[in-house]
Amino acid sequence: MAVIFLLIFVLFSSSNFASALLPTTGPDFSCSADSPTSCQAYVTYISQPPSYKDLGSIADVFGVSHSSVSKANKQVSADGQLVPGQPLLIPINCGFTGNHYFANVTYRMNRGDNYFHVPATSLENLTNLCAVTDLNLGLNPTDVMPGSDIIFPLFCKCPSKAHSNAGVKFLATYVWQSIDDVFNVSNKV
Protein backbone atom coordinates (compact mmCIF):
# COMPACT_ATOMS: atom_id res chain seq x y z
CA MET A 1 0.00 0.00 0.00
CA ALA A 2 1.39 3.40 -0.93
CA VAL A 3 2.24 5.77 1.85
CA ILE A 4 0.40 9.09 1.64
CA PHE A 5 1.53 12.01 3.76
CA LEU A 6 -1.22 14.52 4.46
CA LEU A 7 -0.21 18.14 3.84
CA ILE A 8 -2.58 20.23 5.92
CA PHE A 9 -3.66 23.50 4.35
CA VAL A 10 -4.50 25.64 7.35
CA LEU A 11 -7.39 27.69 6.10
CA PHE A 12 -10.62 27.22 7.95
CA SER A 13 -13.50 26.39 5.64
CA SER A 14 -16.17 29.04 5.77
CA SER A 15 -18.76 30.73 3.65
CA ASN A 16 -16.84 33.95 4.27
CA PHE A 17 -15.00 34.78 1.06
CA ALA A 18 -12.16 36.29 3.06
CA SER A 19 -11.08 32.73 3.78
CA ALA A 20 -10.01 32.45 0.14
CA LEU A 21 -7.22 34.99 0.65
CA LEU A 22 -3.60 33.87 0.88
CA PRO A 23 -2.59 33.09 4.46
CA THR A 24 0.43 34.88 5.88
CA THR A 25 1.56 31.67 7.56
CA GLY A 26 0.74 28.10 6.86
CA PRO A 27 1.89 25.21 4.76
CA ASP A 28 4.83 25.47 2.43
CA PHE A 29 3.94 24.73 -1.18
CA SER A 30 7.32 25.93 -2.46
CA CYS A 31 9.78 23.73 -4.32
CA SER A 32 13.02 22.54 -2.79
CA ALA A 33 16.18 21.66 -4.66
CA ASP A 34 15.69 17.95 -3.98
CA SER A 35 12.05 17.78 -5.08
CA PRO A 36 10.87 16.65 -8.52
CA THR A 37 9.37 19.23 -10.88
CA SER A 38 6.14 17.23 -11.15
CA CYS A 39 4.41 14.28 -9.53
CA GLN A 40 1.08 12.64 -8.83
CA ALA A 41 -0.48 14.10 -5.68
CA TYR A 42 -3.92 14.27 -4.10
CA VAL A 43 -6.29 16.92 -2.85
CA THR A 44 -8.95 16.07 -0.31
CA TYR A 45 -12.49 17.07 -1.23
CA ILE A 46 -15.58 16.87 0.98
CA SER A 47 -18.80 15.89 -0.85
CA GLN A 48 -21.38 18.67 -0.68
CA PRO A 49 -24.96 18.12 -1.80
CA PRO A 50 -26.82 19.05 -3.87
CA SER A 51 -24.26 19.97 -6.56
CA TYR A 52 -21.39 17.66 -5.66
CA LYS A 53 -22.97 14.55 -4.22
CA ASP A 54 -21.65 11.82 -6.48
CA LEU A 55 -18.32 10.63 -7.78
CA GLY A 56 -18.98 11.78 -11.35
CA SER A 57 -19.83 15.40 -10.56
CA ILE A 58 -16.78 15.75 -8.31
CA ALA A 59 -14.43 14.11 -10.82
CA ASP A 60 -15.73 16.53 -13.47
CA VAL A 61 -14.89 19.57 -11.30
CA PHE A 62 -11.25 18.48 -11.21
CA GLY A 63 -11.08 17.28 -14.81
CA VAL A 64 -10.08 13.74 -13.81
CA SER A 65 -11.59 10.40 -14.75
CA HIS A 66 -14.33 8.90 -12.63
CA SER A 67 -12.36 5.65 -12.45
CA SER A 68 -9.25 7.39 -11.06
CA VAL A 69 -11.30 8.91 -8.23
CA SER A 70 -13.02 5.58 -7.59
CA LYS A 71 -9.66 3.77 -7.48
CA ALA A 72 -8.27 6.29 -4.96
CA ASN A 73 -11.35 5.91 -2.74
CA LYS A 74 -12.14 2.30 -1.98
CA GLN A 75 -15.00 3.27 0.38
CA VAL A 76 -17.13 4.73 -2.45
CA SER A 77 -20.28 2.77 -3.27
CA ALA A 78 -20.53 1.00 -6.61
CA ASP A 79 -23.09 3.51 -7.93
CA GLY A 80 -20.84 6.47 -7.05
CA GLN A 81 -23.32 8.03 -4.61
CA LEU A 82 -21.70 9.69 -1.61
CA VAL A 83 -22.72 10.40 1.94
CA PRO A 84 -22.94 14.20 2.54
CA GLY A 85 -19.62 15.34 3.99
CA GLN A 86 -17.76 12.23 2.80
CA PRO A 87 -14.05 12.99 2.20
CA LEU A 88 -12.52 11.91 -1.10
CA LEU A 89 -8.96 11.79 -2.33
CA ILE A 90 -8.78 13.34 -5.81
CA PRO A 91 -5.70 12.39 -7.87
CA ILE A 92 -4.05 15.39 -9.52
CA ASN A 93 -0.92 16.13 -11.52
CA CYS A 94 1.12 18.50 -9.37
CA GLY A 95 3.83 20.61 -11.00
CA PHE A 96 6.29 23.35 -10.21
CA THR A 97 5.23 26.69 -11.72
CA GLY A 98 7.61 29.48 -10.82
CA ASN A 99 7.98 29.47 -7.04
CA HIS A 100 5.28 27.03 -5.95
CA TYR A 101 3.65 23.75 -6.75
CA PHE A 102 0.17 23.87 -8.26
CA ALA A 103 -2.20 21.56 -10.10
CA ASN A 104 -4.02 23.60 -12.72
CA VAL A 105 -7.72 22.77 -13.03
CA THR A 106 -9.89 24.26 -15.76
CA TYR A 107 -13.30 25.18 -14.37
CA ARG A 108 -16.28 26.22 -16.51
CA MET A 109 -17.84 29.27 -14.86
CA ASN A 110 -21.57 29.23 -14.11
CA ARG A 111 -23.92 32.17 -13.70
CA GLY A 112 -23.00 34.03 -10.50
CA ASP A 113 -19.47 32.56 -10.30
CA ASN A 114 -16.45 34.78 -9.77
CA TYR A 115 -12.87 34.42 -8.50
CA PHE A 116 -14.05 34.85 -4.90
CA HIS A 117 -16.93 32.37 -5.03
CA VAL A 118 -15.43 29.37 -6.85
CA PRO A 119 -12.29 28.92 -4.68
CA ALA A 120 -14.32 29.17 -1.46
CA THR A 121 -17.22 26.95 -2.52
CA SER A 122 -16.80 24.57 -5.47
CA LEU A 123 -13.06 24.16 -4.87
CA GLU A 124 -13.33 24.22 -1.05
CA ASN A 125 -10.40 26.63 -0.49
CA LEU A 126 -7.88 24.41 -2.30
CA THR A 127 -6.74 27.64 -3.99
CA ASN A 128 -7.05 31.34 -3.26
CA LEU A 129 -7.79 34.63 -4.96
CA CYS A 130 -4.15 35.70 -5.32
CA ALA A 131 -3.13 32.49 -7.10
CA VAL A 132 -6.18 32.57 -9.40
CA THR A 133 -5.70 36.24 -10.32
CA ASP A 134 -1.97 35.75 -11.00
CA LEU A 135 -2.69 32.87 -13.37
CA ASN A 136 -5.54 34.61 -15.23
CA LEU A 137 -4.02 38.03 -15.91
CA GLY A 138 -6.20 40.41 -17.85
CA LEU A 139 -9.52 38.94 -16.73
CA ASN A 140 -11.81 40.82 -14.36
CA PRO A 141 -12.25 38.63 -11.24
CA THR A 142 -15.79 39.88 -10.57
CA ASP A 143 -17.10 39.94 -14.15
CA VAL A 144 -16.51 36.55 -15.72
CA MET A 145 -18.94 35.39 -18.39
CA PRO A 146 -20.86 32.15 -17.74
CA GLY A 147 -19.36 29.38 -19.86
CA SER A 148 -15.85 30.84 -19.64
CA ASP A 149 -13.12 28.33 -18.87
CA ILE A 150 -10.90 29.67 -16.09
CA ILE A 151 -7.76 28.01 -14.76
CA PHE A 152 -7.70 27.53 -11.00
CA PRO A 153 -4.31 26.54 -9.53
CA LEU A 154 -4.82 24.08 -6.66
CA PHE A 155 -2.23 23.94 -3.90
CA CYS A 156 -0.23 20.72 -3.89
CA LYS A 157 3.31 19.53 -3.31
CA CYS A 158 5.64 16.77 -4.45
CA PRO A 159 7.58 14.66 -1.95
CA SER A 160 11.12 15.81 -1.26
CA LYS A 161 14.03 13.38 -1.32
CA ALA A 162 13.73 13.11 2.48
CA HIS A 163 10.04 12.20 2.13
CA SER A 164 10.83 9.60 -0.54
CA ASN A 165 13.63 8.12 1.57
CA ALA A 166 11.12 7.76 4.42
CA GLY A 167 8.75 5.81 2.14
CA VAL A 168 6.33 8.63 1.31
CA LYS A 169 5.11 8.24 -2.27
CA PHE A 170 2.37 10.88 -2.43
CA LEU A 171 1.37 14.07 -0.64
CA ALA A 172 -2.25 15.12 -0.16
CA THR A 173 -3.56 18.63 0.48
CA TYR A 174 -6.30 18.87 3.09
CA VAL A 175 -8.10 22.09 4.04
CA TRP A 176 -8.52 22.16 7.81
CA GLN A 177 -12.18 22.49 8.82
CA SER A 178 -13.31 24.41 11.91
CA ILE A 179 -14.60 21.16 13.49
CA ASP A 180 -11.34 19.25 12.89
CA ASP A 181 -8.79 17.96 15.32
CA VAL A 182 -5.79 15.76 14.58
CA PHE A 183 -7.60 12.58 15.63
CA ASN A 184 -10.65 13.02 13.39
CA VAL A 185 -8.56 14.10 10.39
CA SER A 186 -6.37 11.00 10.72
CA ASN A 187 -9.53 8.87 10.65
CA LYS A 188 -11.06 10.60 7.59
CA VAL A 189 -8.55 9.58 4.97
From TrEMBL:
Residues 1-20 form the signal peptide. Residues 43-90 form the LysM domain. The keyword Signal applies. The keyword Transmembrane helix does not apply. InterPro entries: LysM (IPR018392), NFP_LYK_LysM1 (IPR056561), NFP_LysM2 (IPR059143), Plant_RLK_LysM (IPR052611). Keywords: Signal. This is LysM domain-containing protein. It comes from Malus baccata (Siberian crab apple).
